[in-house]
């Protein structure tokens, strides 16, 4: 017996409504974890300058 599209949409909306708090909480926790990892492992000032110089030189070479 096929499931009508209306039922699938209704069930999907109910799932989202019931799990919205969990989805938002999980997203916030993951964003916090990624921010901490970036602070611990991210580039320092010298590495950032090297990356910026590379990008600028790459853009100049692309224009030519």
TrEMBL record:
The chain crosses the membrane at residues 21-41. It comes from Proteus mirabilis. It comes from the Bacteria. Keywords: Membrane, Transmembrane, Transmembrane helix. This is Uncharacterized protein.
């Amino acid at each position: 017996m096929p499931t009508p599209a209306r039922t699938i949409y209704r069930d999907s909306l109910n799932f989202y409504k019931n799990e919205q708090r969990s989805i938002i909480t999980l997203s916030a926790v993951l964003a916090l974890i990624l921010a901490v990892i970036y602070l611990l492992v991210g580039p320092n000032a010298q590495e950032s300058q090297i990356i910026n110089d590379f990008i600028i030189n790459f853009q100049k070479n692309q224009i030519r």
